[in-house]
Description:
Layout lengths: L5 E5 L4 H12 L3 E6 L2 H13 L4 E5 L5 H15 L4 E4 L20 H27 L5 E5 L6 H4 L13 H18 L6 E5 L17 H12 L10 E3 L2 E2 L3
Helix pairs in contact: 1-7, 3-4, 4-6
Amino acid sequence: MSETKTALVTGANKGIGYEIATGLGALGFRVGVGARDEARRELAVERLRAAGMDAFGVPLDVTSDRSVTDAAELVAAQAGRLDVLVNNAGISGEAGPGWVQDPTTLDLDVVRTVVETNVIGVIRVTNAMLPMLRRSTSPRIVNVSSAVASLTRQADPDIDIGPIMAAYSPSKSFLNAVTVQYARQFAGTNILINAACPGLVATDFTGFHGPRTPEQGAATAIRLATLPDGGPTGSFFEDDGVIPW
């Protein structure tokens, strides 16, 4: 087995995911670029390699059992190990004017689609990669969440948490809750799992609205992916520290 630590980042062909892959690659990780779109995936791999990083493409649709199983087999074949998993792939779901998802008129199919990617997809990928992660000496799992998942902040009328997003926001709250359940299951092991908020980042996901760059948005996930042994687990972080649930 190669001595080089390996990371898999889902949704890594652009935006925050690409910058997470870049940051881990710069730290010496071999990086699997997980993405559905073949052309964008291979372009991302080419860019990383051109920058001197060890990267390989991983065809990956987090909503497909077969795709995820094939991805696990490919990582095993390409790298022989997995030390870091960053579950970054996510969608917001269809929204109305002002980027609003009104709970009183919400299409239930939108909710199902968002949860399938943002929650079930994370479970699917995590469980498929666990056999390799368990063999690592310092396995780390990072679930990319959002501050809008914080029920504390959502319920505080004095905090501007943004527009009502009745599919997206609860999906990230669900993801946080699942992260805690994994942390409980991993208690007493060397697997650390945490949720990371990138902040409001100007990418195509937000229509390029937001004060933060993708590089800034990637920073917390990179930090959590490289925590020392004995570091925190089952928590929710942003740049300034822990976010209240």
